[in-house]
Amino acid sequence: xxSFQVNDMxxxxxxxxxxxxxxxxxxxxxxRFDLAAHRVDIEPGESDxxxxxxxxxxxxxxxxxxxxAMGVDDSRGAAARKxxxxx
Length: 87
Hints:
Layout: E1 2-5, H1 12-25, E2 30-34, E3 39-43, H2 49-58, E4 64-67, E5 71-72
Antiparallel strand pairs: 1-3, 1-4, 2-3, 4-5
């Protein structure tokens, strides 16, 4: 399981955009979202964490990989997007 914190994922539109990006990268991946926690959990089929991270970035979001043992890696900075993308 590969998990990302995506703080600029704020609504169902965001979930759809990230899902499409991840499925385009890895069509066999299983994707689960916790929108309230801004978390994406992915069980990859063919892709590694870097490829999945890049797919989310290409969709316009700022993923931060979550290390299961250490929590969120905040070293990449804050999310660029503020508020809902639909407004």
